Automatic annotation (TrEMBL):
<protein>
    <recommendedName>
        <fullName>TIR domain-containing protein</fullName>
    </recommendedName>
</protein>
<dbReference type="GO" id="GO:0007165">
    <property type="term" value="P:signal transduction"/>
</dbReference>
<feature type="domain" description="TIR">
    <location>
        <begin position="218"/>
        <end position="279"/>
    </location>
</feature>
<feature type="compositionally biased region" description="Basic and acidic residues">
    <location>
        <begin position="403"/>
        <end position="413"/>
    </location>
</feature>
<dbReference type="Pfam" id="PF13676">
    <property type="entry name" value="TIR_2"/>
</dbReference>
<dbReference type="InterPro" id="IPR000157">
    <property type="entry name" value="TIR_dom"/>
</dbReference>
<dbReference type="InterPro" id="IPR035897">
    <property type="entry name" value="Toll_tir_struct_dom_sf"/>
</dbReference>
<feature type="domain" description="TIR">
    <location>
        <begin position="36"/>
        <end position="151"/>
    </location>
</feature>
<feature type="region of interest" description="Disordered">
    <location>
        <begin position="392"/>
        <end position="413"/>
    </location>
</feature>
Length: 608
């Protein structure tokens, strides 16, 4: 997970450039995104000299800015703890090997991540070179996985393999930092991995005569060097899964380059791609003949492609690349620009800052609503933002500035803190109660002053919650926090986003404590001048008066009905106990001395 950029704009001016959008999304997902790393102890020996060690990869991921849950070999973790960490994670990173696949505990974790939780995953292959894990039960769950090959023989190539891992993580999290055009790919590359020398070098099993002169992945590189945007599976597998991404790539492409071969027509996936492009989408197709065979001409693909232009890459030819480029460019021009412009506009609309900001708000609010629902207190707002009090306000509240200057110990402490870039801990802090409108959280009331020791004694305790809400509010367009323009505020946010205390998946207890602190400060029970409302969906939301009038909501009272009901039930129980204590048990026993019929006295006489 990438770290939040440390620079802040004084006016919090949020431009809509792609770079700004990328930084925004990085910041918003920082505090609730991390990697769960799973590996087998057998693949983590004490001697790291001959293997690519999981701990080495973990250390490099930390240095690259990612947050990870990494089980140490020397520690024994409970099943509940590991399951909780896995549920809270965003991406499952597994070091796959034969030892891992045969280990019952590792297999259970893997199945829980993939089958139960459906976690996006990155597979790193380690251990020996036989890839026998493919023949295990776990191998059946990964029939078409794109993995990073870090087997023992790749030790000397570790730097390149680690860059490949970072690329896959970035693509999976939609945080690619390389310079990729945001426009839709024009050309879809359909091919069989067995015909790619690059894929075979990374572990794909080749068949006899499956490798010819042309490599589909090199063909893709050539087209992109000539300015043609291409879609290829190894670079586009993201959060939606392999087949969803393939369908999306075909729908957005203007044409298809099908690298046909005998192996291609034997692959069910390749045949589905070709059939879908040819008979359903009816988009132009250019055939690149790869491999060494010719039996493909007698297949369904050969029949459907009888009218498609063909370029042979089975033997070395200098003219093949130029001929392919001409055919591809001609096909793209014939498709027309109108549909492409529409697709580009839709893609651009989906990546605006406003949508990313609102997405972060909704996701965080769902988590906070869940925490607040289990908080046994009277109804009260749920979203709070902590900010620094402006210096001039802080100085005017001092009753005796001269006495402050004459306090050498405090002055010495202040200088010491400034030298350590921790001066923000000496500042006065305040808290805002925020309206939960999805157009942007904001405040309509004056802030409440937090205790003077908040910066020095309480920041670490509440860092997990403050880090998350600050990551959102620093990009708000509805209010500009002081910490954006204050030098101490910049140190405060820098510490907050880099603090190890903030990297806690579950911060419910800390949130409850902070909420109670705010409630205690609100001695007049103003609740930030917000009203508790019920939406048409039945959900509860806290809104300011302006948004109450604009939205279709029902205003609820700030009563304590749940608590009163609980108290009334307790009173009834006490009264019943008191009545039973006063009842004479002998008089009850006297009624059952004999089984003979007896005159029963009215029940009322026994009531005291």
């Amino acid at each position: 997970m990438r770290k939040i950029p440390s620079e802040h704009s004084k006016e919090a001016d949020l431009n809509t450039s792609s770079a700004k959008i990328l930084r925004l999304f990085n910041s918003l997902i920082l505090t609730w995104t991390y990697l769960f790393i799973s590996y087998c102890d057998v693949d983590a020996p004490d001697d790291r000299s001959e293997v690519i060690h999981p701990a080495t990869v973990h250390e490099d991921l930390i240095n690259a800015g990612y947050t990870c849950w990494f089980p140490e070999v020397t520690n024994k973790y409970s099943t509940d703890l590991m399951a909780r960490a896995l549920m809270d994670s965003t991406i499952f990173v597994v070091f796959m090997s034969t030892s891992y696949a045969n280990d019952p505990t590792c297999a259970d974790i893997f199945k829980y991540a993939k089958l139960t939780l459906g976690k996006p995953m990155v597979v790193i292959v380690v251990g020996e070179e036989n890839f026998s894990w493919r023949k295990t039960n776990l191998g059946l769950l990964l029939p078409d996985v794109s993995f990073v090959n870090m087997i023992n023989s790749k030790k000397q190539m570790y730097d390149g393999k680690f860059r490949e891992l970072l690329q896959k993580l970035d693509e999976l999290m939609n945080l690619a930092t390389r310079n990729v055009s945001t426009e839709s790919p024009e050309c879809f590359i359909s091919y069989c991995w067995k015909n790619s020398a690059q894929a075979v070098a990374l572990g794909t099993r080749a068949e006899d005569k499956s490798l010819g002169y042309g490599d589909p992945r090199e063909i893709k590189n050539y087209l992109e060097e000539e300015g043609v945007r291409c879609w290829i599976d190894v670079e586009r597998i993201g959060m939606n899964g392999l087949f969803d991404e393939i369908a999306k790539g075909l729908l957005e492409a203007k044409m298809v380059v099908a690298c046909v071969s005998d192996e291609y027509v034997q692959s069910p996936s390749c045949k589905k791609e070709f059939h879908y492009a040819c008979t359903v989408l009816n988009i132009p197709i250019v055939l690149c003949v790869v491999g060494t065979g010719s039996e493909w001409r007698r297949s369904e693909v050969g029949i459907l492609s009888v009218n498609c232009p063909i370029v042979s890459f089975q033997l070395e030819s200098e003219a093949a690349n130029n001929r392919l480029l001409e055919l591809v460019q001609d096909s793209i021009q014939k498709v027309g620009k109108q549909d492409n412009n529409t697709n580009n506009n839709k893609a651009a609309e989906k990546t605006t800052e406003e949508e990313l900001y609102e997405l972060a708000q909704r996701k965080f609010l769902r988590q906070i609503v869940n925490y607040a629902s289990s908080h046994d207190v009277e109804p009260y707002p749920r979203i709070f933002m902590v900010d620094l009090v402006k210096q001039e306000n802080q100085s005017t509240t001092q009753e005796d500035p001269e006495q402050e200057k004459q306090d050498p110990e405090k002055l010495k402490a202040s200088i010491s803190m400034e030298d350590k870039s921790d001066a923000f801990r000496l500042r006065q802090y305040c808290v805002y109660i925020l309206c939960e409108c999805d157009k942007g959280w904001h405040t309509v009331d004056e802030p409440m002053m937090l205790p003077e020791d908040f910066g020095s004694d309480l920041l670490d305790q509440f860092a997990p919650y403050l880090c998350r809400v600050t990551a959102i509010m620093k990009h708000s367009k509805t209010m500009v926090p002081n910490f954006l323009s204050d030098p101490d505020g910049q140190q405060y946010t820098k510490w907050l986003f880099e603090s190890t205390a903030a990297v806690v998946p579950d911060f419910k207890t800390g949130y409850h404590q902070f909420r109670e602190l705010v409630m205690n400060l609100d001695i007049h029970n103003k609740a930030g001048k917000l009203s508790r409302c019920r939406q048409t969906s039945g959900k509860t939301i806290w809104l300011c008066s302006q948004h109450v009038s604009e939205m279709k909501v029902t205003v609820l009272g700030k009563d304590t009905a749940p608590i009163k009901q609980k108290a009334s039930v307790q009173t009834a129980i006490n009264y019943t106990e008191e009545w039973l204590r006063k009842l004479d048990p002998k008089r009850l026993q006297a009624k059952f001395k004999s089984s003979k019929k007896a005159d029963r006295k009215p029940v009322g006489m026994y009531i005291v």
